[in-house]
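Supplementary material to the annual report.
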Amino acid sequence: MSQMVQAKPKKRGGIGEFFSKLWSQKQLMLMSVPIAIYVFIFSYAPMWGWITAFMKYNPKNKNLFDNPWVGWDNFKWLFNRQEWLGVLRNTLAMSLINLVFGTVSAILLAVLLNEVVTKAFKRTVQTVTYLPHFLSLVIVVSMAQNIFASDGAVNQLLLSLHIIKEPVFWLGEGKYFWWLVGAINVWKEVGWNSIIYISTMTSIDPSLYEAASIDGAGRFQKILHVTLPGIKSTFVVLLIMNIGHLLEAGFEIQYLMGQNLVIDWSQTIDVFVMKYGISKMQYSVGVAAGMFKSVVSILLLFLANFIAKKLDEDTLI
Amino acid sequence: MKKLLSVLLMLALVLALVPAAIAEEEPITVSVFVGNPREQPTPDNKIFKKIEDELGIKFEFEFLAGDLDETLAIKIAGEDYADLMDGGNSADTLINAGALINLMDYISEEKTPNIWTHIQPYLGRLLYDDGSLYIIPNFGRNYNAQIQNYCNGPAFWIQKQVLEWAGYPQVKTLNEYFDLIERFIAENPTNEDGNPYTGFEILCDDWRSFCLRNPVQHLVGRPNDGDVLVDINDNYRVEAFVIQPYAKPYYAKLNEEFHKGIINKDTFVQNYDQYIAKLSSGTVLGMFDQYWDFQSATDALVTAGMDKYTYIGLPLVYDPEYVDGKEIEEHYLNGAVINVNRGYGISVNCPYPERMVQLFETLLSDEWQTILEWGIEGEDYYVEDGRFLRTDEQKKNSQSQPWKNANTAYALMDGLPKKQGTRDDGNAWEPGNQPELYFDLMSDYDKDFLKAYGYKVPADFFNPPIELAPYGEAWQIDYVNEPDVSIAETDFVTTQMKYLPEIIMCDPAEIDGKWDEFVQAVEDIPISTFIDYMQEQVLKLVEKANGN
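Predicted assembly:
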């Protein structure tokens, strides 16, 4: 009896509260309407094109439904390709390398800059490190191709330091490819990625550092016990977002730098889709690959969110 | 009387107005997509202004930037076509996607006599089974005698200075070629600026990897059939030559040269731009390529006055030792090939298809062809004793890119149907083929070079063109309508680009194993999908040719 009495007001409060909250936030709601419309038009509406993944689509047919239905054939073709597993492996490997090295290097740079007292120096380093972010990858890759050529700067340096005896064929051997991509990404994005960590660090309460100093903490202990915990929530949120993008290892670098000599190591899902889906006009296969990527990405995102929740961290959703 | 006069005046006025009204069609602006990178013509371009004044048609060009297949695929997906579409080497995809209109609806002997004369002899090859035609070929329609002053297609190329250094020898076989390069490089490891020479380059960039894939068919004495070899003596049997036993000696030879340092590792990872840059620097002694593919490097070398670093094509064949002691006759030059499905098509989005066909018709007239190819008489060329000639100034102009952008319609010309060969008055249709001009335009170095050999033109290094096989050249056969064939072909190319460099770079002891692995990988594609289709198409074309 008492349970029922308790349950009733709770239920009524649920709906009532929702509407009264909605009303009290009406300005905010109004402001988000354009965003919702934008997302609907550009993110949800185009999704109906996914049905072409189950067709043998030919642009010649002016009416979409003139294309024959083929069921799961496009997916089967994709998964039966002998290189598909390799493509998946490359995508995940390069993505993980980018994620780990990208994050670690950004945090490292942010921590180092946070310790710098001279403002002018700090500003200069920050500007210099984030400028490459604005370079086109076409330029970055051709620079890398020159630097890593047989007679390029890297080989000449290593030769003159007597670390190697013969020039290393950086661009032509598959085993180096993932790491080259990782290195290019770090070089290009480290400054940019560190901005968010630096800004988080500036918002850490200075009294925490003072208290730590009074307790006798040295510089490294302060980094370990004040700075790093201070950026933990930012780190987790970014990590969850990045895990959602795990199947996007990038397209440009692999596309520009991946010759056929290293194709077993360079081909990612996006490059594969470009090659067969677009250039060979197998649009349906391209859509199927895109669908596969989206579904896996959403699953990964929820998984990461779930784990973060279990660990009692801030979550995204 | 007064009345009569006014009536007469009226009549005169009307009569004067009528032709003007007919001639002056409404001025239109036509959008044009060109599947090749080109420079924009200047806004006040002389020839385009003439076309606008006389035909009322203005052009707006979009030139290719980036990869052709991707650009077309994206245009097709969005049905975003220009009025005139030149799909370059991938024009078949446009036809397959239904992007172009059937021109036969507008072409007939009465309505378009020029076009009719132009295509009539080739209708059997040009028309689809349902009698449709989407593109009037832009090249390969020769009137009277075909002129071939130089080899525009495939050959083994060598820097002229190497031959000069060796005392102008005749180089006929693969071994002689590499032997010469080795000897030259041993004595001259660097050029005058101290930059080291590279003996032999192999371009492996995307579709241009034909430099790696194609040579073997020529070494055994066939013209260019792309990725397959057609045995005309064996009922047009088609085979993938690159996996045949006779292909192995070539790659083994390249392996040998690689280990001698004649071939550099980097050649397998450089892209087209880097390749052209390297050729333009004058440090590459030789390569297998097609002339048009590296012409920009030649132009750069000529502009820089480095004539001795430019290339001459050599029609190499296998030494008898590689082919059971057989002497092979070279057949690099082929009879004129009608460039099927290359050139402008009229897109389904074009609001004035009839007028576009009439434009082709008008521009195909002798008068307009002369203007488009030669320019304006008195300004761009002069006529002496019936011969079309150019003054030194005019010659210089014709080689200057900025001048061409302002004074020629070459941006449009590439994709237009055009007359080639010889005019009825004996002049060449194209200035580049006019023998007097060709010889005059050569540098003194080139003239002396050819004189030393006793030749008149570079084509004299080759046997005269053989008669074109009834199927044309097999690389023209398209398979965009056959996804399986198309994918098999892509895989075939990819497999070659992956394994052949490995074979060239591997330890000589491993060649046999690697070769077997390669052959297996090609057969696993399965390559038969591609070969069977090509066989079927070749036989179909032969039958068509015999039928007509």
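The domain at 75-310 of chain A is CATH 1.10.3720.10 (MetI-like fold).
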